[in-house]
């Protein structure tokens, strides 16, 4: 079973996203902010990270930058899942090293298709 780290500060969004992923047999670890997400990533080394951008403690951009500097985490696929939908936001996220950029609200099918793409299920 592949493990996904979901970093999202909105409780409802975090729970709903985790539920969709679990329905498709992914193990989901959850973090309520970027700082906790980085801690979990370094401890568990997930197969994929899904991260919001606007969060307390540490935003998603900072999380991505931290993941890219650590040998243990720099090759983990990283997907932004955020309400920031402007072309400049998307371009910036991808330029910084994110593998994908999904905008909220999203369709469960779109989420699973992107996740499957990186986890080769």
How does this model look, in words?
- The protein is α/β, with parallel strands linked by helices and 121 residues long.
- It has a single domain (3-119), classed as Response regulator (Rossmann fold), CATH 3.40.50.2300.
- The protein has helices at residues 11-23, 34-44, 60-69, 87-95, 108-119, and strands spanning 3-7, 27-31, 48-51, 78-82, 100-103.
- Helix 2 (34-44) runs parallel beside helix 3 (60-69).
- The model has no long low-confidence stretch (mean pLDDT 92).
Short description:
The chain has 121 residues and is of the alpha/beta class. It has helices at residues 11-23, 34-44, 60-69, 87-95, 108-119, and strands spanning 3-7, 27-31, 48-51, 78-82, 100-103.
Structural class by sheet pairing and helices: alpha/beta
CATH C-level class is Alpha Beta
Beta-strand percent range: 15-25%
Query: Any idea what the shape is?
Result: globular
Number of strands: 5
Helix content: 40-55%
Gyration radius from CA atoms, angstroms: 13 Å
Q: Which CATH-level-2 architecture? A: 3-Layer(aba) Sandwich
Count of distinct structural domains: 1
Topology diagram in text:
Layout: E1 3-7, H1 11-23, E2 27-31, H2 34-44, E3 48-51, H3 60-69, E4 78-82, H4 87-95, E5 100-103, H5 108-119
Parallel strand pairs: 1-2, 1-3, 3-4, 4-5
